[in-house]
Structures are given as structure tokens and as C-alpha cells.
Amino acid sequence: MQRQLYTADHEAFRGTVRTFLAKEVTPHYEQWEKDGIVSRDVWRAAGRQGLLGLAVPEEYGGGGQPDYRYSAVLAEEFARAGAAGLAIGLHNDIIGPYLTSLATDEQKHRWLPGFCSGEIITAIAMTEPGAGSDLQGIRTRAEDAGDHWILNGAKTFISNGILADLVIVVAKTTPEGGARGLSLLAVERGTAGFERGRNLDKIGQKSQDTAELFFRDVRVPKENLLGELDGAFGHLMTNLAQERLGIAVAGIAAAEHLLEITTRYVKEREAFGRPLAKLQHIRFEIAEMATECAVTRAFLDRCIADHADGTLDGVHASMAKWWATELQKRVADRCLQLHGGYGYMSEYPVAKAFTDSRIQTIYGGTTEIMKEIIGRSLLA
User: Fold this and answer.
1) pTM score, two decimals?
2) Each residue of 76-90: pLDDT tens digit?
3) Dihedral through CA 177, CA 178, CA 179, CA 184, nearest 10?
4) Which residues fall within 8 angstroms of residue 176, CB to CB, at 6 or more apart?
5) Between the chain's N and C termini, which has fewer beta carbons within 10 Å?
6) pLDDT band at 43 (very low <50, low <70, confident <90, very high)
7) Which residues belong to the active site?
């Protein structure tokens, strides 16, 4: 089916992204996977190419383009390239909105130019060793000390945790307030008492630095409060729909690309004297995956269009997230099976896609949380 979502300008941008990936990412990606981290140089290259801060106003060096479809193109092309290690989507679409919508003018002038140039890499620290989706379980605390906060606590599974120059930390500022007593504090690289733990060894997305962060009596200036005091819960809920949609967009794009790779493989690979594609079971497998991808694509394109218009709600974003990522996981498993023993070899893209995709149904809210959100909306 011909997609109706994008204009010629979006497709021209897609060409720019593909050129960037071919020149700046793909030739180095294998080494980054071994290193467990991408080069800071590629962030600056992305900034020079105009891929950072797409929605940030031009006065701060951004693209000044609030149309979410450009972010969707970026997510699709990075997913097709298998380049999850360079977490531009996290930077642009998850952290960017906090800075553009909540930051004061002084904060914007301090952080956004570097955000757009790639000189300032960002992260958000919400998850803790004992608290994931349950915000009420957060134990990191920030105590009011006059002109600054004293921040103590630990975070884990923080994407961009090693490279990040600016970390938005979710902390308790009113202990008795539960989830309604949390605030967002921006902690900058080099602040005394802010330490990074190990770069965590994951089963997939090896080049994406994911770290433990520790805060020991960190003095955070009062001017680094982002948004309203005790307002983190509302701020986080506002931006979750875009985060979940972005994960879903990457999920369906990755599934479609895996299907393309596998379709070519079964046409070329022979068994019992003929191509695998001549076997009915193989054709049925391909037919099922192609149909599921096509149906999911239609729903995702509608969600992208709605979000670009500002009408996508959290329930439909949750539907998109759980469905597309579970589909991605199924397609990765089935495509690996169709590759046989070769699918289990790390040198084949399908093997890497299999391990990289597993986190998709977990971060940004697990599949179970997505179903809970949907179910509550229908049965409240």
C-alpha cells in the first residue's frame, strides 16, 4: 500500500538521514558495539547535519520544525539501519520536549545551543534499583538547602548514562507527597558528588551506553529545577505518549526491514534442491508476517498523523507501543528461525536484530503496563 503520511520534504529529509547513516554511522558501528559506546564525534556530526533538536526553535540552533513526522522519519531510518546505539530519538523526542516546554529562558540559552550542536548529550534518570514503572517507589531525594538542593540517591538502566552531559533527575522534593511530590532537577557533568557506575553489559543494543548513576550530597542549584516544584508527575505523563509512539515507530520499521531481509534470504537459500521460497510453509510464514506488518503500519501511520496534529492520546499511544513492539519481537524470532543456523550467527543482521529488539517491550513502559492503561480507559 502506498503510504500517504509523508510529503516530498519529508522524503528529502529521509535521504539526508540515510546519507548520514551511511557515512557517519554504519562504517563505525561494529567497533562501537565492541566498545559498548558510540563516539562523541558522531553526536557532533549529527548536530552539523541538523539531526539534533529538530523541534527546537531556530534561535537556539535547532530546526524550528515542530512537525513530528520528521522525527518519525529519523526513527524509521535508524531502525532500518540497526543503529540503536546512537540514541538520537531519546535526545530529541523524549528529553527535548522537557527543555523546550519547561525550561526558563536562562536555562534554554544555557543548554539548548549545545543540545542542538551535539556538544551537550542528554539523559533522563527515572528508573532506580527498586523502582521502575512505579513512580511512588522512587527513593532519590532532594532536600531544600536554601539556594540549592542536596541530592542523594541512585539510578539504573540510564540510556546515554556514560556520555550524558546533562541528566534530568526525577527526585522526591516532598517526601509525603508520593508520586505528586517529585520534581525534575537538571544535573550537569562534573558536578561534585555526581558519579557514574559501570556501563551495563546488555544482551543487545551493545553500543548504547546504559549506566548506573549515583548522587552523593550533590549540590544542585535552585536554578536547575526544571518545570514546577513537585510537578514531575504531570510533566512525565505529558511526554509519555510521544516516547511510546517513538518506540512503536522504530518497532514497525525494524519489523518491516527484517521481513525484507528474510524475503530475500528465502529466495536465495536452497534446501532439498530448491529455494526455501518454494516451500508452502515458508510462503505462509512470509504471508502472515507481511499482513501483520501492513495492518500495523496502517495504524501507526494514523497515530503519527494524529500526533503531528496534536490529537494523539495516551491510550492509543499505549496501543501502538505494545502492539508494534510485540510484533517486532515475533517477527525477529520467526525471521531468525527461517534463517536456520545462519540466523544464530552474530554476523547476520537478523541475529543482532533479535537481541536488539528484546528491550522494546520493556522500556518506555512494559507491555503489561500498556495493557493496564488501555484496560483502565475502557473499564473505568
Assistant:
1) 0.95
2) 999 999 999 999 999
3) 60
4) none
5) C
6) very high
7) 243
